[in-house]
Structures are given as C-alpha cells and as structure tokens.
Recover the amino acids of this structure.
C-alpha cells in the first residue's frame, strides 16, 4: 500500500520525461541512421547463415581478409596482400595493429581459427571453403592456405569468410556455429566481437539492432555514430515510416512506390543493376509432366517447345508494367559484373507470338498443353506478378498454365524435392564468377553438386568443362571455357532467362550512402550532408 | 405475447396452422411495417440485393472477363479510373497490375466472396440447427457433450479456428490440390467456426418450445421425433436463426477477406474481394489507390448492408422490444 | 464466503482437466499442420548448401521421424520447461515471447479499455434515449465500424495520421520505460502516441459488441418489475437508471468483456502486422512464413492457455455465484 504513492510519482515523472522525449525525437538525432528492411538478420554468428540480410548485418561488425568496395572490386581487408605461391598454395600477409572490439589483437591464429570454424559441419559457409586443405601459420602476420585442388576463385570466396577472435570464441564456448538440434542459445547469436567499423551495442532479434561506431577501426573512420535497424515486414508500413520521417533509409522499397518517393523533396531514390538474374526453369529430364501426367510425355524435353515458350514472352511488357522499367531483359542467366558475362551472349530471342505458335505446332502440340507453374511470392521483386504475366502470355499460344504461387519456404521445398515441371527462380552470384552459376544450375545433379539444377539438364561436355573451370588457374583459358558453357546452354535453351534484377534504395535526402550492386549497404561510407 | 399455443390443438389444426404461419406471420406482423418505415433499412436491402444481383450475374453484366487469360493485356496494366487503353477499351474503375478491369474483377470477386459467405453460413446453419435440435430433444449426455464442444470452440476466435482448419486441409490435400479446392476448404473452415451460435440459439428456443403442451401432446400421440422437430419446433426457432444467419454472413465475408489478406484464403488467380484488397494494398502508397480502395469500398458496403439488415431483423423480431 | 463445497472442487477439477485436454488437442492439430507448411531446412541453410547438407540438418532436427513421435518429444520437452530455440533466430523461444508479451498485453488492455470507455456510455445512452438522433448514429456508426476489415482501416489510419498529417508515428512501439522485465509504453506521452492507432483499430469490434450488449441488458432491466416498482415508489429517474439498472446490467457485460480479452489477443495478429507492433501476433505470422515450428507451437500453446485460464476464471466466478455449487 505504501508504495502506491511512489509508483504514482514515478509515473508522473516518466510521463514528463516521455513528453520531453517526444519533442527530442522530432528534432532528428544528427548522428544516427535509422533504417529498415523487410527481414532481420537471422543471427549475429558470422558463419551460421549464408543469407543476404544476415551477411549485411555481420559485415558492419566483422571483417574479411579480402573485401569488396562499393564497386564490388576486391580490395585488401584484414589481409594487406595475397599471392598464389603455387597452384594449390596461397600466401596472405595480414594487416598489423588491428584490434577486435574488446581490445584484443588480431593475428594469424584468428585467421586459422575462423577458416576452420567456417569449415565446421554446422557452418553454412562450408561450400565456400571446402577446397581448403589446411591453414598454416608462418608468423603472427603471415598465413599460408593450402587447397586440395587448384582453386582460382579462392579470394572471391574469402570475401564471405568473417574473421572472429579465437580467444573470445573459446571463452564464450562458440568455437563452432550452433548445432541445429541444440536446445540452447549460444553466446554468438546475440553478441559479436569483430574488427569492423561498427560494434554491436544492442540486439533484439526481429525487433531492433543497434550498432555503434568503432573508434579504433583500422580503416577510414565511419562518420555516423549510431546505426539502428528495425525490420518492418509490411511494405506499405515501411514506406509510411520513411515518408513520416521515422526512418532515414529503406533498403527494399517496393518498385511501384519509387516514383512517388522520388517525387518527395525529402527523399532520394537510387538504383543499380543487381547481380541477380530471374529466369524460368523447365524440367527437360522428366519422363512426363508431373502436373499433367495424362499427356503421357514431356513436351519440355523438346527444344522447339522451350523455344516457343521463350518467344511467347513479351519481356518489354514485363519490364515496363511489372518492373516499372527497373529490370534489364536477360539473354543468359547471369548478370553484368560477373566474370564470364558478355554483352554478345546476353541477347534475347525476339518476342514473336506467331513463330512461337508455329514452333509449338511443329513439335506436335497445335492445341498446346496444360502445365503448372510454381512460383515464390515473397522472394524476388514482384515474383508473383511476373508469374501471372507469364501465365497470361503463354495462354496466348494455347499453353494453359495454372499458377501455384507460394511463400518461399514451401516453394523451395517443391523445387528442392524435384516436384516441379516449370518454376521461376532467381540466381545471385556471390563470387562474381560464372562458375557459381554452373556449379549449382548447370552441372548434372548429384547430392554434392548441381543442387539447384532442377531443369535436370545433363550434358557430359558441360560437366567436363565445369570440372576443368574449377581448377584452371590460367585465367584466359578459363574464361574461354566459361564462354563455351554459356554458348552450349544458351543454344540448348536450358533456362528461359527473364531479366537482371535492378535494386533501389530510398533514403532521406540529407543522407549520402553509395548504392552497392550486392545490395549490401556499407554504413562506414555513409555521411549526412551538411 | 404468446397467443397461439395456450391450448392443446388437434393434429389437423396444427398442420393447417403450420402451412400459413411463416408467410402470414411476416406479412401480418409489424415487421413489414417496420421495414417500410425505416428508410435506412430499405436502402440497405436495396443495396444488398443490387450487390448480390451484380455479383451472381457478373458473367453477363461485367464489361470484361477478368479471368480469361487470353484476353488480358499487360500493356493495359495500372490504368487509373475512366481511362481508355491502346486498343480503345474503356475502364470505368481503372485496371490492376495485370491489366484486369477493376470493375469486372470486383463483380467476380464479390461473387467469390458471397459464395463463400453464403455457403459457409448455410453449412453452419444446417449443422448448428440440427445439432441444436438434437441436443435439446435428446438431452442427457448428448446434450452435454455437444454443448461442451460448443463452449470450447466458442472460446477460440473464429479466425484462429478457420486458420487451423485451413491448415489441416492443406495437410491432408497437399498444396497443389489445395489450389482448386481452396474455396471449398474455406467454406468448410468458416462454416465450422460459426455453427455454435446457431446450435445454442436453436437449442435454447427448442427447450422452451418442447416443454409446451402441444409438443408434449404430439409426443404422447406417437408423432415421430424428427417430424415433431421439423414441423413444430423448427418454425418456432426461425426468427433467431434468421437474425444469426444475416449477421453471420457479414462475419463470414469479413473472415474470408481476412484469411485471404493473410494469404491463406482464395488464390490470386481467381481473387475474392479480400485477395483483391491484399494485392491492391501494395499499391496504396504509390498513388494507385483505385486498385485497393474500390474493392475495399465494395466489401464494406456489402458487409454493412448485411449487418444493417441483421441488426434491424433482431429488433424487429424481438417481441419484447415492440 | 462460507464453506466451499466438495461439488465445487469437483466442478473446477473437471473444468481444469477439460482445459488441459483442449490444449493437448489444439497443440497436436497445430503441430501436425506445421509439418505441411513447408520445409524449415530450406530456410535454415543458404542456397549454397548441398543436398547432403540439407539431409544432415533434417536428421539432426529429427524431422525424419513420424509426426506423432516428434509431437510427444515436443510435449515432453515442454513439460520439462524447455520450449526450445527458434529455428530462425536460434534464440530461446521463451525469452523471445517474454520480450513480446508486454507489447501484446498492453495493446489488448488499452484496446479493451477504449472499448469500455466508449462502449458503456454509448450503450447506456442508446438504451435510455432509443429514439434520439445520436443513438441511431451510434448504432449505425458502430455497424460501419465492424464492417471495415482491420487491415484496411489500419492502413487508412496510417495514411491519414502519419503520412498525410504527420501527427502520429506510423509503426512500432516507442517511448518505453522499463519496469523490471516489463517494458511499458503506457507511462509516457510518446508511448501513447504509438499505441493509440493500433489500439483504436483493434477496439472497434469490441466497442460495437459492448455498446450493443449494454444497450440490450439495460433495456431488459428497465422493463423488469422491480425497476418499475422503484419508479412507482417515487425514486428519481436518475437513481433508478444509474444505480439499479446499470448495476444489474453490468454483471453479464463484465463477464463477456473478460472472455473477449482472449479474442482481442488473437485478433491482434492482424493489427500487429499492419502497425509493425512488436507483439506475439507479429512473431506468429513471421514464424508461419519461415516454418519456425518451435515458435508457432509456443504461440498456440500460449493462446490456448490464455483462453483456458480465462474460461476457468469465469467458471470460478459463476461457481461462486451459483448457490447449487457453493452449498452441498
């Protein structure tokens, strides 16, 4: 009873403080960047999730040996220089005087530890480091990396391997990423100790993440003191928050809102082609269609049918109306900026409904056929709308498509289980090298390689070329082989390319933040205009 | 208040009375008068009839067939109201992101919404009424079992019950089959989440009714139980059923819209009003307000007209409020 | 209060057992469904993982076992107080819920408070002045309110008050003051500026219900003999209406409001999604998308438990009032 009065007092005081706070936030904190995206990082454990939002957040806090600048060119990170000593051995010279956020020094020990941690069974990055046989420490600032087979793109892969502090990891019992079946949360999920430009101040998964400037950062000091991330799943809500000045930056504004946002004086919009291509997959390997077994055969096995479907797609309409001009029609399933891409390859067959219909008749389907299109509805930009448009376009050459649009968790299960005849997929290229496309989408499928080759395309020549590409250190020779693979699969019409995705960022016009094609903001480069 | 059953009628009298009761009661009673007297209700009723009419005759009335993929042109997408596309086609309420005519999509969408709403309520009505009658007439453990189930279900909100049933159906049918069966599953899910109110009301009314002498007499005379239930008790519980049904239709339509909004309802290829609003909601901030606001407005009008009618019926049929 | 009889204990025990059975059924149905929502493994590993990696994760999680076995393991763990960790964020589910619980409860309570604050006076007025212009507007207005789906009214409110007028924040929960483990937004003006729109959106349905119920109950009571008698005895209209009539009509209303609190909690799923309110409903929707089985199950158990407890309380109240159960 006697506490009641003091509680009353407390309430009054808090109310007063609150009123003051309300005023305070309206005058925007000068050195804070408040940003949002649809999803949050899943974990702060830098080796546990190979997923863009997670990598985004971790990259602010952790560094890699080699990193990419805002133009995606490789530049020294924690390694000052690197060179191949032989086909299977690389030497890395480390940066001196770097400290982790807790003050301990960064050295060769930490490199060995981190790479081995990324190779652990529970790591989600092991595909990136599976060619590494061993890491040898020469001295505190020199390491040798030995690979099992020659690996010309090792540096590319290392731009994803974050460096952790060995001592900190051992102290907090996080020497490997968490087991999937463990029932306890590990320390690294909400805590981080990196060498990055920002340190992790506060982390409440799905609610709020606060980063604070690292005063001892080895590179040019960051300009903005505090970064606050709040995930907002609903797109209209996210945009409303930006419009009402509750946010300074939105990573993923819906493209239909860009025109309006750009019209606002207080908001700027920037766009850049992303390293991701959207395409349709057609299972050419199946005996018959799963979604239409009565047909008795698989029309997709006939190249003329694939070509007809390709030519029936009016990519200009998709670009203008669904993507609002923010897409580059694609001729191959990889984007500009990826090694092996060239403009000549990236040309499309013409949109020609008459010829498409003729091809279909030649192939023995004058009346078309029925098929199901599997499509995600929350993975790529306007994915479901693209699929709907495709359904309508194919219906005009009498291919009757039923659309099965689902959330990504179900969609990837359907495609992953090889249960789809016809699907929409997008592929980003983490290493910026064509090999990353070949390895997952074009190699004959087994449980180690060709994971997403659900077109069930199988070509011995392509497989041989891919195996050689993976080990060829002579880059000119390698590029030639890459081009050959692209030519063969383009000729085969293995996939129906649609477009290269274009990403857009919307931010307060006071904020300057260079847009990056990898869709990873580098907050250390952000500044407020004076 | 109760003038009819204070004496014991003969069987012939009962049958003769039954044939006339329903229509006569409605025409003679103050209901008709009360209806004419209230302009709001007349408007609501007319609105309701117009919407239902335009929904069910959509294939003949709508200017376009929004589900005919072969006539859809992406180039006509996102046109504002009162525009004409390259081919000279006119769109009164504009087009959506696939080039569908919004007016036609609303008419077809309303049809889907109404079919789900009406069918779900019909299902709930039949199920609830029969279970209510059974519970009242047999009493004992059947009664307590049924009412316990009703209690339990009533404590969960309809939307959660519908979500769960929808999920079970997905589990049983598999997702690809679900596409074509989605509408039936929704009807079942919403219907099952609404039967309780009918059962309770019918049971309560039937309990009162069956204690009356004429029912007791009929039982003694050896009239079969189902016959008594259908011919004597059911007509007496018509008014509560009617009220609950009207309001339930409104609730069912909203529930369907909400489920579709959450993405577990009607698929986008044959959208209901809820699906149209969900898809259109993405364009609200960009200034393409017509894609979501017209379907939204239609939904509100439809639901409101049912709510108004139900509300009025409740007062009009409640003898104590006269 | 006097001796509480054996019959009452028996009755309550019976209801408790029923409650537990209900929860078992609900969780089982829920659990079974989740297994068909999708494969969590595809979300848990990146696109660079091989088929062999995926299979390993599936085995580790025990997802290859029959659903019924998984269910019993799950219930077993819960009985030991172990709700597991989220597949998605790898954080403790119980902790995640504890952080979000205040948000949902405050939203529900404020929304319930609004509906009582407006609903009871409106209901009384409508009962006492049935023919007035205002009463008719209240009644029709409330019908319009329940005819607008929450997701639409929420978006329109945001558009009006945040984007166009710039008066209220469009999303989230701010102005928090920590009271131990409970972060409240109810003691600051800023906190209220965040909660007001979602709470209003959420309260419309209850508001209509309460207005109508109070009106109906009042009308009934006014017609009863003892009120007529009181009037005949010469008590002023004021006393009759406000003391006797209101008191008598409030008992069932309060009961229903209590029970409705559960519905509000469940309905907040949609409101929280629209306003990015960091509560349990938002967590639930996110977990459905990811097929985060531990989180989904925990949420359903929470909602189930919440309902069962509310029902038990109502039963208890009835039991205390009902002389047949109290005596014996």
């Amino acid at each position: 009873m006697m506490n009641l009065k003091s509680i009353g007092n407390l309430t009054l005081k808090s109310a007063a403080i609150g009123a003051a706070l309300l005023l305070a936030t309206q005058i925007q904190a000068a050195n804070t960047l408040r940003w949002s995206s649809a999803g949050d990082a899943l974990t702060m454990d830098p080796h546990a999730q190979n997923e863009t939002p997670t990598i985004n957040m971790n990259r602010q806090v952790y560094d890699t040996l080699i990193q990419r600048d805002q133009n995606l060119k490789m530049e020294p990170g924690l390694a000052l220089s690197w060179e191949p000593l032989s086909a299977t051995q690389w030497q890395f010279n480390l940066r001196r005087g770097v400290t982790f956020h807790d003050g301990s020094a960064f050295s060769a020990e930490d490199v060995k530890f981190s790479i081995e941690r990324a190779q652990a069974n529970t790591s989600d990055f092991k595909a990136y480091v599976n060619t590494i046989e061993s890491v040898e420490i020469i001295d505190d600032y020199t390491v040798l990396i030995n690979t099992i087979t020659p690996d010309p793109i090792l540096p590319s892969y290392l731009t994803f391997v974050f460096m952790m502090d060995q001592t900190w990891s051992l102290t907090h019992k996080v020497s490997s990423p968490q087991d999937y079946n463990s029932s306890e949360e590990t320390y690294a999920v909400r805590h981080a100790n990196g060498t990055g430009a920002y340190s992790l101040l506060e982390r409440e998964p799905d609610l709020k993440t606060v980063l604070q400037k690292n005063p001892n950062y080895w590179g040019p000091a960051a300009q903005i003191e505090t970064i606050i991330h709040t995930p907002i799943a609903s797109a209209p809500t996210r945009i409303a928050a930006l419009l009402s000045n509750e946010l300074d930056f939105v990573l993923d504004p819906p493209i239909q809102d860009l025109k309006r946002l750009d019209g606002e004086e207080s908001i700027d919009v920037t766009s850049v082609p992303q390293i991701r291509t959207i395409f349709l997959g057609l299972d050419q390997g199946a005996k018959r269609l799963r979604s239409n077994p009565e047909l008795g055969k698989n029309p997709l096995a006939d190249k003329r049918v694939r070509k007809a479907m390709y030519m029936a797609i009016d990519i200009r309409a998709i670009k203008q109306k669904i993507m609002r001009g923010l897409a580059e029609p694609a001729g191959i399933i990889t984007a500009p900026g990826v090694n092996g891409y060239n403009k000549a390859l990236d040309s499309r067959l013409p949109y020609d409904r008459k010829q498409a219909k003729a091809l279909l008749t030649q192939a023995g389907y004058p009346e078309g056929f029925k098929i199901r299109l599997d499509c995600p509805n929350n993975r790529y930009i306007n994915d479901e709308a693209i699929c709907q448009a495709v359904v309508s376009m194919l219906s005009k050459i009498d291919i009757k498509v039923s659309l099965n649009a689902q959330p990504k968790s179900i969609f990837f299960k359907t495609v992953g289980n090889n249960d789809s005849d016809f699907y929409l997929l997008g592929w980003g290229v983490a290493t910026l090298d064509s090999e990353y496309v070949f390895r997952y989408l074009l190699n004959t499928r087994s449980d180690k390689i060709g994971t997403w080759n659900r077109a069930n395309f199988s070509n011995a020549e392509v497989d041989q070329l891919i195996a050689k590409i993976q080990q060829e250190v002579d880059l000119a020779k390698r590029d030639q082989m890459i081009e050959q693979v692209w030519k063969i699969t383009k000729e085969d019409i293995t996939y129906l390319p649609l477009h290269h995705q274009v990403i857009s960022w919307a931010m307060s016009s006071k904020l300057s933040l260079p847009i990056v094609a990898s869709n990873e903001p580098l907050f250390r480069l952000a500044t407020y205009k004076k | 208040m109760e003038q009819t059953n204070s004496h014991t009628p003969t069987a012939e009298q009962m049958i003769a009375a039954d044939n006339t009761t329903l229509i006569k009661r409605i025409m003679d009673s103050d209901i008709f008068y009360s209806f004419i007297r209230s302009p709001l209700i007349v408007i609501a009723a007319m609105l309701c009839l117009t919407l239902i009419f335009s929904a069910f005759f959509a294939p003949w009335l709508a200017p376009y067939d929004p589900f005919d993929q072969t006539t859809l042109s992406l180039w006509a997408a996102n046109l504002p109201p009162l525009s004409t596309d390259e081919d000279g086609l006119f769109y009164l309420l504009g087009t959506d992101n696939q080039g569908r005519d919004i007016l036609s999509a609303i008419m077809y969408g309303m049809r889907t919404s109404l079919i789900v709403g009406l069918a779900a309520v019909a299902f709930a009505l039949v199920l609830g009424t029969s279970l209510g009658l059974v519970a009242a007439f047999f009493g004992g453990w059947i009664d307590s079992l049924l009412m316990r189930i009703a209690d339990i279900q009533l404590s969960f909100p309809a939307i959660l019950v519908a979500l769960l049933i929808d999920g079970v159906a997905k589990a049983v049918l598999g997702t690809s089959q679900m596409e074509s069966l989605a509408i039936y599953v929704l009807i079942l899910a919403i219907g099952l989440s609404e039967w309780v109110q009918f059962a309770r009301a019918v049971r309560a009314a039937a309990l009162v009714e069956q204690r009356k002498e004429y029912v007791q007499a009929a039982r003694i005379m050896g009239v079969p139980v189902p016959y008594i239930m259908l011919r004597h008790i059911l007509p007496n519980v018509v008014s509560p059923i009617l009220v609950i049904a009207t309001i339930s239709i409104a609730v069912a339509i909203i529930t369907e819209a909400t489920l579709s909004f959450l993405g577990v309802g009607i698929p986008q290829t044959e959208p209901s009003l809820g699906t149209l609003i969900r898809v259109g909601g993405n364009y609200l901030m960009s200034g393409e307000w017509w894609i979501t606001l017209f379907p939204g407005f239609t939904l509100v009008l439809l639901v409101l007209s049912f709510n108004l009618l139900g509300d009025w019926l409740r007062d009009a049929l409640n003898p104590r409020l006269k | 209060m006097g001796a509480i009889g054996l019959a009452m204990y028996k009755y309550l025990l019976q209801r408790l057992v029923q409650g537990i059975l209900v929860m078992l059924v609900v969780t089982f149905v829920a659990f079974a469904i989740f297994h068909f929502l999708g494969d969590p493994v595809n979300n848990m590993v990146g696109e660079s993982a091989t088929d062999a990696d995926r299979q390993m994760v599936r085995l580790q999680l025990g997802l290859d076992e029959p659903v019924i076995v998984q269910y019993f393991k799950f219930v077993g763990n819960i009985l030991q107080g172990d709700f597991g960790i989220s597949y998605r964020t790898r954080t403790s589910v119980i902790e995640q819920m504890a952080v979000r619980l205040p948000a949902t409860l405050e939203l529900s309570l404020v929304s319930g408070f609004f509906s009582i604050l407006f609903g009871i006076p409106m209901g009384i007025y409508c009962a006492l002045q049935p023919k007035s212009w205002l009463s008719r507007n209240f009644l029709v207005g409330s019908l319009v309110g329940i005819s607008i789906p929450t997701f639409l009214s929420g978006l329109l409110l945001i558009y009006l008050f945040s984007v166009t007028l710039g008066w209220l924040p469009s999303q989230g929960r701010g102005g928090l003051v920590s009271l131990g483990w409970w972060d409240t937004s109810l003691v600051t003006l800023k906190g209220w500026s965040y909660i007001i729109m979602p709470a209003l959106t959420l309260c419309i349905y209850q508001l209509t219900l309460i207005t109508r119920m109070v009106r109906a109950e009042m009308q009934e009571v006014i017609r009863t003999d003892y009120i007529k008698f009181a009037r005949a005895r010469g008590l002023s209209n004021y006393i009759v209406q406000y003391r006797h009539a209101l008191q008598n009509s409030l008992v069932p209303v309060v009961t229903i409001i209590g029970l409705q609190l559960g519905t509000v909690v469940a309905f907040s799923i949609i409101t929280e999604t629209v306003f990015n309110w960091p509560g349990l409903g938002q967590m639930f929707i996110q977990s459905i998308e990811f097929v985060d089985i531990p989180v989904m199950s925990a949420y359903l158990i929470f909602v189930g438990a919440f309902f069962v407890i509310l029902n038990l309380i109502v039963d208890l109240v009835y039991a205390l009032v009902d002389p047949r159960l109290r005596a014996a």
Remarks:
- Chain B touches chain A at residues 69-70, 72, 74-75, 77-78, 97-99, 175-176, 179, 263, 267-269, 281-288 (CB under 8 Å).
- The first strand of chain B starts at residue 83 and ends at 84.
- The beta strands of chain B are 83-84, 90-91.
- The domain at 46-61+99-321 of chain B is CATH 1.10.3720.10 (MetI-like fold).
